[in-house]
Amino acid sequence: MGVVIIDGSTVRDFVSDEAQFKKSVDERFAALDLNNDGVLSKSELRKAFESFRLLESHFGVDVATPPEELSQLYNSIFEKFDCDNSGTIDLEEFRSEMKKIMLAIADGLGSSPIQMALEDDDQNFLKQAADLEASKISSAS
User: Fold this and answer.
1) Fewest beta carbons within 10 Å, which of 18, 27, 33, 94?
2) Which domains does the chain have, with CATH numbers?
3) What is the tens place of the pLDDT at every residue in 71-84?
4) Residues 15, 13: Cα–Cα separation, whole Å
């Protein structure tokens, strides 16, 4: 387990590094595309968000959200990603929405640094942003 410190500029720099951001998002998309058909279905996206447990906990404490409410939330997220209303999410739609989400996180963080404890093998986007910043610092030395 390791601790990283990030702020909005860390996240913004990660998104601005188009090659690295695209590679990271494309890898995540491929991992979520369970049937390898090149698009994400509602169930594939839902499984991804369920694994993040963003909607089932509040500051790490489990909360009981009624299943119908969870379904509405997941459907709303899917509709946000499915920009062309095709019923699936293609790679371009996924990239576009992930960029918006990451920039919103950057805006929310602003210049206030936060500490995050992460597993060493965790490859979430915020850890990748911190790793990219660390690599720039070490190569400048």
Assistant:
1) 18
2) 2-139 (1.10.238.10)
3) 888 899 999 999 99
4) 5
